[in-house]
């Protein structure tokens, strides 16, 4: 009798939780939609964006697919959440509380033009904080401004003890009052360096999906996000409007660790699979951060040292190689124009 009662209570608690979760996700979606349809208020700093909505931002910033196809680029690494986290932590250690003495721009034409008056806006300002959101590193400065940096496909931030441009791809030099500097180098110029006011920064970040390393991101949350998604699970994981920071590498690796096939439809994942997947996304990203990120081609930490998480890959880039778990040959397919690596024996 007691057991039946307890079970019933448990069931009701579960239902209550599911309802609360659903409301939470819906509320978030509604907030995002209303903000996306509303044009941003006039830009104080980044006048290039005047009148653009955050939905347009997403098109400019998040659509890596298009740039990849145009360039037929394959094999390098675009920094994902772990790499940007490592970079942001490094910067926090090196340049927090430093005063900017000048910003020199050698090439204004990145994916979107660099904010025109960047030197005027930042000169003399102290950097109060550095954080990561999705794949962006954000420096908050005195005067409530935000320096928003995205490394695109090949961007690097180099910490140096000089302000000398030594490479033709050194596009921006932030010089600090102690004569150290951060140099933004980007051969393919798909990166981004813009200045936003506090209000603009808030609007900009509102268009983002959930951060996967937060407590809020759970199996239940993931299932709610995927409920009506009729796309393959790998593409859903890479959709930054749902979850931020997961790109091609960490989507493939998380799915392998959770033993879920990238071919599955997102909406068909069971509650147990969502729990497993959410946990493995967290594990994969945390392990990669601890390893200093992954270095395949272009990525390096600002100190110049490489990350080594690529040595731990199970499937990414392992085409025609045996699976570490079952010896089956790793399969390579294309999904939405991107390479997907998986083991069709381990992953169902
Ligand atoms: Zn296998």
From TrEMBL:
Domain FPG-type, residue spans: 314-348
UniProt organism field: Trichonephila inaurata madagascariensis
GO BP annotation list: base-excision repair
Gene: mutM
UniProt feature coiled coil, ranges: 1-28
Name of the protein in question: Formamidopyrimidine-DNA glycosylase
GO terms, molecular function: 8-oxo-7,8-dihydroguanine DNA N-glycosylase activity; class I DNA-(apurinic or apyrimidinic site) endonuclease activity; damaged DNA binding; zinc ion binding
Keywords assigned: Coiled coil, DNA damage, DNA repair, DNA-binding, Glycosidase, Hydrolase, Lyase, Metal-binding, Multifunctional enzyme, Zinc, Zinc-finger
Oligomer status and interactors: Monomer.
Required co-factors: Zn(2+)
InterPro entries: DNA_glyclase_Znf_dom_DNA_BS (IPR015887), FPG_cat (IPR012319), FPG_Glyclase (IPR020629), FPG_N (IPR035937), H2TH_FPG (IPR015886), Ribosomal_uS13-like_H2TH (IPR010979), Znf_DNA_glyclase/AP_lyase (IPR000214), Znf_FPG/IleRS (IPR010663)
